[in-house]
Amino acid sequence: MTQFSRKVLALVWKDMLSEARTKDIFTSVFVFALLTVLIFSFALEPGSETTSLVAPGMLWVAFTFAGVLGFGRSFVLEKEHGCLDGLMLCPVEREVIYWGKAIGNLVFMLMVEVVVLPIFYLLLNLPLDSLPQVVLIVLLTTIGFVSVGTLFSALAANTRARDVMLPILFLPVVVPLVIAAVKSTGLILQGSPWADLWSWLQIILAFDVIFLVISSLVFPFVLEG
Amino acid sequence: MKRNSYSWDAVLMAASFFLLAGALYLVFMWVPTSATSLEGIAQRIFYFHVPLWWVAFLAYAVTFISSLVYLARRGASWDNLACSAAEIGTVFVTLGLITGIIWAKPAWSVWWTWDPRLTTALVLWFIYIGYFLVRAYAPAAQARNFAAVISIIGTVDSFIVFMAIRWWRTQHPSPVVGTGGGLAPEMLFTFMVSLAAFTLLFVLLMRLRTTLRATQEQVTALRQAEE
User: Fold this and answer.
1) Contact A179 B146 (CB under 8 A)
2) Which residues of A touch B138 (CB under 8 A)?
3) For residue range B48-58, what is the model confidence (pLDDT) as tens digits?
4) Is A139 in contact with A44 (CB distance < 8 Å)?
5) Does A116 touch chain B if contact means CB atoms closer than 8 Å?
6) What does the alpha-carbon distance between residue A168 and residue A136 come to, in Å, rounded to a whole number?
7) B147 has a chain A CB within 8 A of its CB
8) What tens digit of pLDDT does each residue of A119-143 get?
9) Is residue A37 pLDDT above 80, yes or no?
10) Is ipTM over 0.95?
11) Are A107 and A25 within 8 A, CB to CB?
12) Interface contact A86, partner B, CB < 8 A
């Protein structure tokens, strides 16, 4: 294992440990995501015919807003206890901090999604054979959310009105991800084959790769000053 | 030196004033309404709509490049350039969206549609609203870095948005200028005058805004030195 990945894993371990003791992020994000699904069920009244039309939208609104909440917490916690200054004093490159926080965020988001997704299937009575494809879409899209979410949460944590700044920056940027995720989830729920998914998965993959690279490159500038 | 730069501003101001007035005359009195267009007289908004977008893209390109240079080299003047262009670009994007909405109703019989160009423009507009909010809310020492980062992310994102929505749906008329054919000579002339007028206006606004911002920064520095 290289020096770089060992440092990154040390940072991820720190986040896991503090999360395991406080359960701060998981609890709030999980409850929030479930409540979003609940409110949508009353707002849209999905019946048997409309379910496959509204379900993708419900799912992705829940995950997008849950993401905003979770990413926001992750840097605000660092900021509140002066941990961020400690992190910056560590003899590690700034990119290491980005990857550490990004992987930490990814793990938290996936943990929430792993629990919310089955409940969502159960509540809306969705076809179970669509699950493997939906899991793949969720995994790839969450990587995209995390790539820009980690960068913007570090940025927003250093501004006044940080709770408002993160969604204002994050939501317009993830528009292409949300489009691709909703479209591909919808296709799968309507029983389309794997091949139809491909063009949408390409957009999600392109977003993931491009923004992981750009975010890790510009992240040092966000911590400066 | 100073006197010289003021006289350039005066020349630019006069030139863009007369060109804009000329463009107004050409658009409303001279050029015939395109015979092929279904929307009738509303077609003439094209002479303002397209130059507005041209300036908007020019401005955002200036912001993107100056942001990159600012992160690489530093220097407040690059940040000044980036932020001034972003402000002017956002004004033009807003006007471009409004003229587009006015045109869309007679042409498409809806005010708005989720077409790639429209959606990309709207997303970019939102990203730059975030850009200005961050400049206002971030501590002065970090605001410039933050703004540059948002401009870079926003520019790259707009390409992905465009791709995503092109696969999703498309309705906007394709470009007719420079593809040969499509535009009658009178229409092309009117369009070029309008394009020149708006481009000169952009150069003028950029000069005024960057000078103003540089002066603002000098005043702030002097005030801090006094305290």
Assistant:
1) no
2) 155, 158-160
3) 888 999 999 99
4) no
5) no
6) 27
7) no
8) 998 888 888 888 889 999 999 999 9
9) yes
10) no
11) no
12) no
